[in-house]
Automatic annotation (TrEMBL):
The keyword Zinc does not apply. One of its GO terms (molecular function) is ferric iron binding. It holds the Pfam family Ferritin. This is Starvation-inducible DNA-binding protein. Belongs to the Dps family. Keywords: DNA-binding. The keyword Transmembrane helix does not apply. It comes from the Bacteria.
Length: 159
């Protein structure tokens, strides 16, 4: 295992959190790809607003990916973010490649954001229980942004 750049976290906890970080990295990466799939293909009333919103949301997810991956390596792990790992390890439902209507994309993205946000919050709890408050804080911050982005996306849908 590569060098760790932290002290005060026992090896068992570090390894547990590294695995947790990689699991959530796969999910956030899958979600980022889903957002771009929607961004490229959606059509309908409100197109430009949703299209531009999804660019901002994708930027937030890329930042989350980077933060998760860097924490993984800081703890002495290897960040595993290849498309092959994401496809094999993500818990996010595969995103349809044949949708066009904005309403369909909004529903599909909202559902995936809710699922991913729930897993991120559980990761925060697990990191705390493992004795890594910094990783807990990382997950809490990501969940806040993810919840806000879910709201922004979902508020575009029919009531």
């Amino acid at each position: 295992m590569p060098e760790a750049f932290v002290q005060g976290i026992d090896d068992q906890a570090r390894h547990k959190v590294i695995d947790l970080l990689n699991a959530r990295l796969a999910d956030v990466s899958a979600l980022a790809l889903a957002v771009k799939q929607a961004h490229w293909n959606l059509k309908g009333p409100g197109f430009i607003g949703v299209h531009e919103l999804l660019d901002d949301v994708a930027d937030n997810l890329r930042e989350a990916q980077d933060t998760i991956a860097e924490r993984c390596t800081i703890l002495g792990g290897q960040a595993k973010g290849t498309v092959e790992v994401v496809a094999a390890e993500s818990n996010i439902e595969p995103y349809p490649t044949d949708m066009e209507h904005i309403e369909d994309h909004i529903k599909a993205l909202k559902d995936r954001f809710l699922k991913c946000g729930e897993m991120i919050r559980k990761a925060a709890e697990t990191a705390d229980e493992a004795g890594d408050p910094d990783s807990e804080d990382l997950f809490v911050e990501i969940s806040r942004t993810m919840d806000k982005d879910c709201w922004f996306i979902g508020a575009n849908g029919k009531q």
